């Protein structure tokens, strides 16, 4: 059995390749034009153009129509009338999660504000919802609470 010595270590066969030396004669396979072809901007030293440049033709990103945008940092909110909350029981807490489960607000809404529309009011228990002052007084007059 042979012992391993530091001076006998070498990489596995085929794992190391010599770098390609372009422009070093026809025997290398990349002599004369060094794989750059004959004429044109890319064949010359310093032949650079920006990304998306199409040789003076109107670029694709300028040919296509622009349409729409999304507002960065937009907080999705919803206003909900008080009359739509009358379907809930008065003993359970109503939160934004329960409103989403019942389909009263969309799934991506982060903020819900209850506004005054309609006259009938149960003694509701609201939790984590924004309310107007008229809604707050109406719910507390009916015996409900807002957390």
Strand order of the largest sheet: 1-3-5
- The end-to-end span amounts to 80 Å
Gross CATH architecture of the domain at 77-146: Ribosomal Protein L15, Chain: K, domain 2
Structural class by SSE content: alpha/beta
SSE pattern, N- to C-terminal = HEEHEEEHE
Q: What does the radius of gyration come to?
A: 36 Å
Q: What is the CATH topology descriptor of the domain at 77-146?
A: Ribosomal Protein L15, Chain: K, domain 2
Structural commentary:
This protein has 147 residues and is an alpha/beta fold. The chain has a domain at 77-146: Ribosomal Protein L15, Chain: K, domain 2. It is built from three helices and six strands; from the N terminus they run αββαβββαβ. It has helices at residues 60-63, 96-101, 133-141, and strands spanning 77-81, 93-94, 111-115, 125-126, 130-131, 145-146. The strands form two sheets. It has a three-stranded parallel sheet. Strands 2-4-6 form a three-stranded parallel sheet. The longest helix is centred in the last third of the chain and has 9 residues, at 133-141. The model has no long low-confidence stretch (mean pLDDT 90).
Provide a brief overview of the structure.
The protein is α/β, with parallel strands linked by helices and 147 residues long. The chain is 13% helix and 12% strand. The protein has a domain at 77-146: Ribosomal Protein L15, Chain: K, domain 2, CATH 3.100.10.
């Amino acid at each position: 059995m042979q012992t391993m010595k530091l001076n006998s270590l070498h990489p596995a066969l085929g794992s190391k390749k010599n770098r390609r030396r372009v422009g070093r004669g026809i025997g290398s396979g990349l002599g004369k034009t060094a794989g750059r072809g004959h004429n044109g901007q890319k064949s010359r030293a310093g032949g650079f153009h920006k990304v998306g440049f199409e040789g003076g033709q109107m670029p694709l990103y300028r040919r296509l129509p622009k349409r729409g945008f999304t507002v960065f940092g937009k907080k999705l909110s919803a206003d909900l009338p008080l009359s739509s909350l009358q379907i809930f029981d008065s003993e359970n807490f109503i939160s934004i999660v329960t409103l989403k489960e019942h389909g009263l607000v969309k799934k991506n809404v982060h903020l819900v504000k209850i506004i005054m529309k309609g006259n009938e009011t149960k003694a509701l228990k609201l939790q984590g919802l924004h309310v107007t002052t008229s809604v707050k007084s109406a719910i507390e007059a009916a015996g409900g609470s807002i957390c």
